[in-house]
Design brief:
CATH superfamily of the largest domain in chain B: MetI-like
CATH class of chain A: Mainly Alpha
CATH topology of the largest domain in chain B: MetI-like fold
Radius of gyration of chain B: 24 Å
Number of helices of chain B: 12
Strand content of chain A: under 5%
Helix content of chain B: over 70%
Strand order of the largest sheet of chain A: 1-2
Strand content of chain B: under 5%
Largest sheet of chain A: 2 strands, antiparallel
Order of helices and strands of chain A: HHEEHHHHHHHHH
Structural class of chain A: mainly alpha
Distance between the termini of chain B: 42 Å
Oligomer: heterodimer
Number of strands of chain A: 2
Chain lengths: 299, 301
């Protein structure tokens, strides 16, 4: 390869990079341009009217936020504990460690629609029906799609995100911290929860934010575990169904009878979801970059 | 007995239990998805068996007087869309990764990587929406296609979703190649381009293989994009300009209407198990490749 070939190759790879960045720019630009046209405070705080051609999307925002909060309540503590097991307690050669490790890595690659099937088969048809038989005989309360089961399904989906991020941070805490703590007579429990975990706080934050961003954007897992197209009331009970931004976008885009009328509001809805997930992702990237820089300083 | 010791012991047992529960849940995923399809094995799924999804006639018509549940058109559709997406995404993502790791000035690199992470953060329903509203019009006009929604449009849209994963995994692999390799090559008089193509790429090849395999797995399982822009008709055709239907989109589109416990319901869970197995194998391969990369570059896993 001569100098000319070198130059050509550089330009070729730069060109590919620019195409990818342009894709991002076009998508975001298009949605921001059309999405802000009808955006207003009222759009965010009001309920839909007139078959989704007027009003706002407050119930969908409310449903999405409730979903990710419920999901985090399950996924974050659980994920952090598994990460602590991986980084602090497990012996790398133990069978439990190797199996769990493999299982978590695999879980991260399972298609989200399969999680939806799992939610339907396990949470709703098995667990929910069992709860109903035991506590509410003759009634169907937990044995049907609801925000609780959608949140649990989403929690299983986002679990690997939390585990992997938190574990990485725990491992970046220098060993000397643990040794110093143990040498001072602290137990392992005290060392992990009073010395190591506080150092890894930003990792817990990043993991939770990434999980929330994923949970807010995924639609396939809630398709048949609890999302509804339109509900007159906000969900107030774990067994209620809920409206969801992503689900709303999907239904309106593909099943609306009046595309031209709903299009401006639809664009605004997509814009709201995009801004929401971008803010979460940017926050995660910033925290993580600061963390990584901090990590290298210490070594 | 010291209470601190007791707390220590109890907490260890608790954390151990949580790890066990984590494995249990993951096993449960397979058990429950498989369990709902299991009546196909025992022959109690309204006369359907495990062979039903594979026997003639080769059509997918779940809602008709004599329902037909042949999955071959769906598999063909999945392969078609996935191959189109891979053909677009792989060269772009690999070239961008090579540029970022070998040529980009440091300041620029700090912008490219987060930007592509942002692309990864766009929910797939938003990508699907964009593809349906904007991309479909462009592709139809640009290629003079009869159908607005077709395999080509779905494949292009799907490429958006898998570029970040192929980029991230392969860029990590290229950056992991030790600086010594570059310095040795440059010291021998090779140009930057020669170093990239003849030294860095071959050294990072297992990582690139991992990136491609993982991207492939992601493309096969991706649901919302194909559900929105593939046209959703299960046709027997190799033509990329025809509408298609994929395995994942079929589950998404039909599960809500399938009667609980019916043959249709069982077959949809069977398709789910199929997806689970395919992506599981691809992930496993990806991990093997990544391990080989580390062994190759650092001498140990």
């Amino acid at each position: 390869m001569n100098k000319l070939g070198d130059r050509f190759f550089l330009i070729l790879t730069l060109f590919a990079t620019l195409i990818v960045l342009a894709m991002l720019g076009i998508i975001v630009g298009n949605i921001a341009y059309h999405g802000t046209a009808r955006l207003s405070w009222q759009f965010i705080t009001a309920a839909p009217e007139n078959g989704m051609t007027a009003g706002g999307i407050f119930p969908a925002i409310y449903g999405t936020v409730s979903l990710v909060l419920l999901m985090s309540l399950a996924a974050v503590p659980f994920g952090v504990l598994v990460a602590i097991y991986f980084a602090e307690y497990a012996r790398p050669e133990s069978r439990l460690y190797r199996w769990t490790r493999m299982a978590v890595n695999n879980l991260a690659g399972v298609p989200s629609i399969v999680f939806g099937l799992f939610g339907l088969g396990f949470f709703i048809q098995s667990l929910g029906r069992t709860i109903d038989q035991a506590f509410y005989p003759g009634r169907l309360l937990y044995g049907q799609p609801s925000i609780l089961w959608a949140a649990m399904t989403m929690a299983v989906l986002t679990l690997p995100v939390v585990i992997i991020t938190v574990e990485e941070t725990l491992r970046s805490v220098p060993r000397e911290y643990r040794e110093a703590s143990l040498a001072l007579g602290a137990t392992r429990f005290q060392t992990v929860f009073r010395v190591v975990l506080p150092q890894a706080w930003s990792g817990v934050m990043t993991g939770s934010i990434l999980a929330i961003s994923r949970g807010a954007g995924e639609v396939a897992p809630v398709l048949f575990t609890g999302a509804a197209y339109f509900l007159p009331r906000l969900p107030a009970h774990p067994a209620d169904q809920f409206m969801h931004l992503g689900y709303h976008i999907w239904v309106l885009t593909t099943q609306s009878t009046n595309v031209e009328e709903t299009k401006p509001l639809l664009y605004s809805t997509v814009f709201v979801l995009l801004v929401l997930t971008f803010l979460l992702n940017i926050a995660a990237i910033l925290i993580r970059n600061r963390l990584r820089r901090g990590g290298t300083d210490r070594q | 007995m010291n209470w601190r010791r007791a707390v220590d012991r109890v907490s260890e047992i608790l954390i151990f239990t949580v790890a066990l529960v984590a494995i249990a849940i993951i096993l449960l995923i397979f058990v429950y998805v498989g369990r709902e399809a299991f009546p196909l094995v025992t022959g109690t799924a309204e006369g359907l068996t495990l062979a039903s999804p594979f026997t003639a006639p080769y059509t997918w018509q779940p809602v008709s007087n004599t329902p037909k549940y042949n999955v071959f058109p769906l598999i063909l559709g999945t392969i078609k869309v996935t191959i189109i997406a891979m053909l677009i995404a792989t060269p772009l993502a690999l070239a961008a990764a090579l540029y970022t790791s070998e040529f980009a000035p440091r300041g620029l690199r700090e912008w490219i990587k987060p930007a592509i992470e942002l692309l990864a953060g766009i929910p797939s329903v938003v990508l699907g929406f964009f593809a349906l509203m904007v991309l479909a019009t462009w592709v139809q006009a640009g290629f003079h296609i009869a159908y607005r929604l077709n395999a080509l449009t779905a494949g292009i849209a799907l490429a958006f979703a898998i570029i970040p994963i192929i980029y991230t995994v392969s860029e990590d692999a290229m950056t992991a190649v030790p600086r010594l390799y570059r310095e040795a090559s440059l010291a021998l008089g090779a140009s930057k381009g020669q170093t990239a193509v003849r030294v860095i790429l071959p050294a990072a090849i297992p990582g690139i293989a991992a990136a491609i395999v993982l991207g492939f797995g992601r493309a096969i399982g991706e649901t919302m994009i194909v559900l929105m822009v593939s046209g959703n008709s299960a046709t027997w055709s190799l033509d990329p300009t025809n509408p298609v239907r994929t395995l994942s989109a079929t589950i998404a589109a039909e599960m809500a209407e399938a009667v609980f416990g019916s043959g249709h319901y069982r077959i949809l869970f069977f398709i789910g198990s199929l997806l689970f197995i395919i992506t599981g194998v691809l992930n496993w391969m990806g991990e093997r490749f990544n391990r080989r990369l580390r062994e190759r570059l650092f001498g140990s896993a």
